[in-house]
Design a protein that fits this description.
The protein is of the alpha/beta class. 37% of the residues lie in helices and 21% in strands. The strands form two sheets. An eight-stranded mixed sheet has the order 3-2-1-4-5-8-9-10. The protein has a two-stranded antiparallel ribbon with strand order 6-7. Helix 4 packs parallel to helix 5. Bound molecules: NADP nicotinamide-adenine-dinucleotide phosphate. Keywords: Oxidoreductase.
């Protein structure tokens, strides 16, 4: 294993699955990874919804139900709402065994004062995923992306860093490399899963920025 943090593996041959890939975030990620040359499978609770979304995206994207998506993919991104997070993962424990799981779920609440971070019992969505999937390689990333920008093909580069968290360097390296496949995007290692809560929560602050300035804000980590 390399010790150079900038030396990342070639992930171009890995199949990327997106659970809940019919939603805004999932479609956006699927589009960007497919355009970057990655094989992508969109997952859904209903195979026909996934197939329809995949056909719209083109670029060789396929659709399947979430179970088949998980089974056929090397890297599985979890892009379902927080409400459906635990039940979705529990039902896919077998299919996700040994897989590199990337959780991008932000547990948020919304009220008249805007968005705020929820406090999951396990500490974070990512830690809930790790608890529910002890035989998977759970990481967390892609929390701070704008689904609007991801889906807008007139936006050529996604100008943001992606904070990547996880327990195994080999796994976070793969996720960093995947982020780096998208023009403008860069994956930065940002710690273990016990520090995922504040990364997930920061989205509440970004939503405040977006509302105040009418933008789709991203994040950069400087001096890296
Ligand atoms: N939107 C963003 O800009 C953004 C950015 C970063 C991270 N995220 C995170 O990404 C996740 C998805 O966001 P989104 O905006 O794409 O959400 P969404 O459109 O509300 O949901 C995504 C997909 O999840 C499936 N789904 C809905 N309810 C479900 C349930 N109870 N159980 C299982 N699957 C369910 C649906 O697909 P089917 O009906 O086809 O199964 C839906 O199309 C969220 O956890 C969010 O925090 C979003």
């Amino acid at each position: 294993m390399t010790t150079d943090p900038y030396d990342l593996p070639d992930v171009s041959g890995l199949v990327v699955g997106v659970l809940g890939g019919t939603g805004d975030q999932g479609r956006g990620l699927a589009l960007r990874f497919a355009r970057a040359g990655q094989k992508v499978i969109i997952g859904s609770r209903a195979a026909e919804r996934a197939e329809a979304a995949a056909a719209e995206l083109g670029a060789g994207v396929e659709g399947a139900d979430n179970a088949e998506c998980a089974r056929r993919s090397d890297i599985v991104i979890v892009a379902v709402p927080w409400d459906g997070h635990a039940a979705t993962l529990e039902a896919l424990r077998e299919e996700l065994r040994g897989k590199l799981v990337v959780d991008c779920v932000n547990p948020l609440g919304f009220d008249k004062r805007g968005a705020y971070a929820l406090k999951p019992e396990e500490g974070s969505a990512a830690e809930q995923a790790a608890a529910l999937l002890p035989e998977s390689r759970v990481t967390a990333a892609f929390h701070h992306l704008s689904a609007v920008l991801l889906q807008d093909e007139s936006v050529r580069e996604i100008d943001t860093d992606v904070m990547v968290l996880g327990e195994k360097r080999a796994d976070t390296d793969i996720v960093q490399a995947l982020a780096g496949r998208v023009p403008g995007m860069r994956g930065v290692f940002a710690g273990r899963l016990r520090n995922a809560h504040q990364v997930e929560s920061l989205v509440a602050n970004l939503i405040s920025v977006n509302r105040r300035y009418k933008v789709h804000a991203g994040l950069r980590v400087t001096d890296v």
